[in-house]
Amino acid sequence: MSALRGRAALAVLLGVLCGGFAVPAARGAPAAGFSEGAGPAARFGVHEIALTGNGGVANPFDTDVTVTFTPAVGRSAQTVHAFFDGGDTWRARVYVGGTGRWLWTSRCASDPALDGRGGAFEAADSALCGRLLPHPANPRQWMTEDGRWFLNVSDTAYFLLCTHDGDGAPVAERDAQDYVSEAVGLGVTSVRCFLAGDAHGFRERREQWTDWIFEDEGATRLRFDNLQCADRRLRWLLDNRPGLAVQLILFPVADRSRDEGFWTGLSAAQRERALRQLVARYAAYPQLFWLIANDVHYGEKFPNNNAFAREVGRYLERNDPWQHPRSTGPARREVFPFGGETWASYIHLENEHDLGAAECARYRDCAKPVFLGEDRYEQDHGTDRDPAHMAYWQRRLYWAWLFSGGSATYGGRWWLLQPYTQTGKRAAPSRWNRDLVFRDALTGLDAARHIRSYFAARHIELSGFEADPGLAKDADGAAGARAPACMRRARQEFLIYHPNAAADGREARVDAARTPGLTVDLAAADGAFAAEWCRVRDGAAQAGGTVAGGRTQTLRSPWLGEDCVLRLLAE
After folding, report:
1. What would the pLDDT profile of 191-209 be if each residue is shown by its tens digit?
2. Domains assigned to the chain
3. Phi and psi, residue 120, nearest 5°
4. pTM exceeds cut of 0.90
């Protein structure tokens, strides 16, 4: 038991000194991540150069301006496109990958005012965590560029970056900032966000493309109001919550039920113009991971949708200078069809009540992160589809997916942006039935902070683990979605989540009359193991003594009526 206590104590100390171990969102005082002009820049931040040109040309979005950023040491020069930002202004951004002096020069064949400009800035080290990358030790996990494993505990915040919410009401800056601050405090490490919304509210229609992305019917100019709002909030996030990753959902879907033709109906020039501007504006932000679109049907009946995803994905693969993770979102319960294609660098899924993470195993051979981006929502349809016991349902979803090798998300009042603690104070008519008004506080994130704390306090990084679902079984024979989820680090450490479920699906609830037990196959694990139980509802931990390896062991939780995590660590 001394080894377990020693490592836990060291991890707590490191967490105090570093502002949180292995979990970027838990880090200490935020650094200023966005810098401009000749001012000082931060390593792993964004630096912007503003240029003045002729905005009076026929279409300034077609003015091709490139800027080459050259660091003095350590990295190759990076040439990026500048984006038109209204008036006579173009902006170019670089992700600051290293410290020291940086030089920049501009090139533009069509506008002399934009050509041949140059300057310099200095970049200093910072506490920023950098880009989200595939983990070199485990391609099914992510890490941040500062070398930390990334624990993905996600939340649905569709309209966080938008001017208007799903009801068409303006999204206040204070609500956006409070929402994020509360989510991070609750343990959330990533949020899912649309690039844009509009005053018409969220509805499936062709006009979403012009309301969200294009300013004109000819799709030749982009909408500044939406793009600049997302820009402003991403900048605030980088400066104030730099460890929070953002899944940026780029494009709308006009009609999820059919093979959509808007994108494929655009000319190559129209499509390239939009993609070039979006990548130029957003790709330098380190916290992003791309989602091309959400809730899309793919497969042989939807050739336009397939072509849309592949074209945008391959464009990002070729033209995103910093290679953020890329994917697209299939409709609920559909198989992800692009797992073997290189442009899709992670698997994005939607499912319904997948509390046993059954779909995660399907994609093991893809060797990519698997993310359940959407399951069921809290306070959405009411008693029709919403989980009846959301606090339990959601923590069960999170833990089961993490210990199956993937990650999951939470959704509450998805069409609005209401800070979590204010949901019991603000009414919310359902999107599907306006006579149904939600007034109770949300509960789905009540236990999320204990997930983050569990890994941080114990110095655990799942990049060193692999899922092994057959290794642990319920001692009383529960199987299927109620079976334990297990990961192991070689034969030195085992992590097992027991859902202790009395029901599944919408009615999922904990078995209040049962003390969960686990039968663990340690036949191939020699030596002794220190056991520790964690009650995931509130994070309480209790030592479980020493367990001998080399045989199958049956262990019982110390708590009646609780779902829990068992850790076995070699002494």
Report:
1. 999 999 999 888 777 788 9
2. 34-124 (2.60.40.10), 132-457 (3.20.20.80), 468-570 (2.60.40)
3. -150, 160
4. yes
